[in-house]
């Protein structure tokens, strides 16, 4: 302890490595608390950190925490797990590293970090430039109606909790993203599932639910829904907004996949068709830009906006200024348009590659709807298979897929797998299909 380390030059000569390598190692040891760097004096072996005895019995925590475990949260968290490096990943929700526009992001971040005032406190609602960008994208909101958040998940959580009270009814699509189910359960909401098909939410069935119950909020994914890839049809959009107006409910539009289009015309946002402030809009850029760029917008009008703003400050005061600046710099540059084209092309190749592999190796697995965007295929297993069992056996065989039952908010209407193509290059998807076939 306290011993001085040899100089960088000495270490470099002794171990025949570059000065950069020595600096990396020293930085690493310092981060681990093993050495202390004293500018001008050198690097010294650090004192052992004081560490009290670790308590052996943590059982008291069960009594303190009480009985209710948010079990949906654990299933939801499983989506963020990193599998073994040899496992092929066909479950998840972010693009892989090969699709990160690293050079352009580094350039944007470098410019952002040098801007005057960027290291100070950012506005609670988000920077003016970020709010303007998301407002334009939403097609229905003014910048003053937009709040910037650290990613889509927290925006959804703020919206669902701020617009409902524990015990209220909430309408969720079935199947749908389990993130909503976890938030709703955690907030003590009564979930009313309404089925979807390739044309999105079955508004004919929503009418009955709204007539029979007092719901405050309907959560929808009108574009390339996760997991089915469905797109809400024009007549159903009109019907949904009409129902929202007649029954006085909010509609939470999770526009999570607008920048993950593979081809074809995209319908406008639901928000752009809303006249009376029913639509609350969420748009995240984490998926299309990079997993490290945790940035999203939450937009609403009237008293709902005031509630959301108040709720947001309970969770998080403001999003880091350099991140907002860098994101807007990137999103306003030609690099973003180029990147969108690359993502679109690559998603198309991956979707088609996986579909072809499934058709040749797993003819009994049915993909009824080929999505025009998003990252997933919703695949029905042949009769007699159990999705959770197949997913577990697939993982043991080296391919990670998602069991479809997690996506249903009501009883599953069959055994499905959600097969993610967005996170894996084609060659690996083909190998993944082969491994899945060996299990089936
Ligand atoms: C439909 C949907 N909405 C929202 C999210 C949240 O994503 P993020 O917090 O990265 O924006 C996800 C993530 O998988 C998703 O699938």
UniProtKB/TrEMBL annotation:
Residue ranges spanning the membrane: these are: none
Keyword tags: Aminotransferase, DNA-binding, Pyridoxal phosphate, Transcription, Transcription regulation, Transferase
Write out the GO MF terms. DNA binding; DNA-binding transcription factor activity; pyridoxal phosphate binding; transaminase activity
Q: Which domain of life is it from?
A: Bacteria
Which is a Pfam family this sequence falls into? Aminotran_1_2
The record's annotation in SMART domains points to: HTH_GNTR (SM00345)
User: Record's SUPFAM superfamilies?
Assistant: PLP-dependent transferases (SSF53383), Winged helix' DNA-binding domain (SSF46785)
Q: Where is the HTH gntR-type domain?
A: 1-48
Instruction: Please state which protein family the record places this protein in.
Output: In the C-terminal section; belongs to the class-I pyridoxal-phosphate-dependent aminotransferase family.
- What this protein is called in its record is DNA-binding transcriptional regulator, MocR family, contains an aminotransferase domain
Q: Which organism is it from?
A: Nonomuraea pusilla
The top of its lineage is: Bacteria, Bacillati, Actinomycetota, Actinomycetes, Streptosporangiales
């Amino acid at each position: 302890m306290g011993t001085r380390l040899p100089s960088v030059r000495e270490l470099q000569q002794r171990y025949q490595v570059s000065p950069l390598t020595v600096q990396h190692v020293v930085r690493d040891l310092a981060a681990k608390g093993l050495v202390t760097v004293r500018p001008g004096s050198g690097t010294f072996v650090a004192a052992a950190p004081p560490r009290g005895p670790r308590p052996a019995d943590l059982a008291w925590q069960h009594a303190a925490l009480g009985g209710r475990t948010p079990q949906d949260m654990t299933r939801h968290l499983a989506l963020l797990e990193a599998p073994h490096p040899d496992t092929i990943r066909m479950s998840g929700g972010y693009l892989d590293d090969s699709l990160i526009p690293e050079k352009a992001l580094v350039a944007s971040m470098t410019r952002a970090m040098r801007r005057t005032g960027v290291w100070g406190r950012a506005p609670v609602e988000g920077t003016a430039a970020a709010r303007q960008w998301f407002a334009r994208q939403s097609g229905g909101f003014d910048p003053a109606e937009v709040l910037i958040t650290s990613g889509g998940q927290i925006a959804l959580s703020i919206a669902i909790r701020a617009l409902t009270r524990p015990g209220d009814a909430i309408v969720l699509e079935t199947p749908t993203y389990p993130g909503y189910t976890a938030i709703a359960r955690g907030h003590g909401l009564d979930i009313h599932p309404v089925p979807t098909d390739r044309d999105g939410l079955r508004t004919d069935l929503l009418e009955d639910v709204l007539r029979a119950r007092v719901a405050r909020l309907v959560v929808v994914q009108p574009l390339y829904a996760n997991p089915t890839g469905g797109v809400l049809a024009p007549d159903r959009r009109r019907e949904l907004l009409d129902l929202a107006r007649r029954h006085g409910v909010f509609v939470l539009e999770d526009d999570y996949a607008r920048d993950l289009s593979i081809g074809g015309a995209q319908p406008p946002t639901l928000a752009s068709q809303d006249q009376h402030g029913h639509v609350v809009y969420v748009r995240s850029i984490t998926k299309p830009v990079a997993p490290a760029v945790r940035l999203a917008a939450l937009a609403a009008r009237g008293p709902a906006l005031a509630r959301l703003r108040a709720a947001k400050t309970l969770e998080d005061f403001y999003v880091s200024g350099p991140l907002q600046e860098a994101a807007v710099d990137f999103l306003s540059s030609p690099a973003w348009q180029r990147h969108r084209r690359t993502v679109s092309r690559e998603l198309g190749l991956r979707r088609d590659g996986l579909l072809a592999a499934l058709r040749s190796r797993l003819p009994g697995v049915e993909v009824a709807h080929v999505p025009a965007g998003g990252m997933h295929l919703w695949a029905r297993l042949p009769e007699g298979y159990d999705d959770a069992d197949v997913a577990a056996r697939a993982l043991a065989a080296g391919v990670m897929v998602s069991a479809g039952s997690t996506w249903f908010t009501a009883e599953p209407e069959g055994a499905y797998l959600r097969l993610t193509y967005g996170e894996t290059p084609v060659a690996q998807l083909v190998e993944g299909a082969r491994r899945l076939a060996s299990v089936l």
